[in-house]
Amino acid sequence: MTRLLTQPSLALLAASPRLPVIAMVALRFAGAVTQWDQRSRTRRALSSLDDHMLRDIGVTHAQARKEAKRPFWQP
Fold first, then answer.
1. Given Cys at both, which of 7, 64, 70, 72 links 36, Cβ 3.0 to 4.6 Å?
2. Do the Cβ atoms of 37 and 7 come closer than 8 Å?
3. Cβ(70)–Cβ(44) below 8 Å
4. Looking at per-residue confidence, does 15 or 28 come out higher?
5. pTM metric for this prediction
6. For 25-41, what is each residue's pLDDT tens digit?
7. CA dihedral defined by 19, 23, 26, 31, rounded to 10 degrees?
């Protein structure tokens, strides 16, 4: 899937004073969905790391498992 707008791009568009309210709502929603997708992918990647890789980043297996189980909407 190709992303046409990055989150910083969405922030720039949302800062524009000339956008209608519905456009602002749509941009905020798109930003939230983008952030949720990033969290989901990051947590999925974290859950796939082996113990050696987790040690390299200073995370225990239990910490990684706990983080990976969190829902995407929770920061």
1. 72
2. no
3. no
4. 28
5. 0.67
6. 999 999 999 999 999 99
7. -20
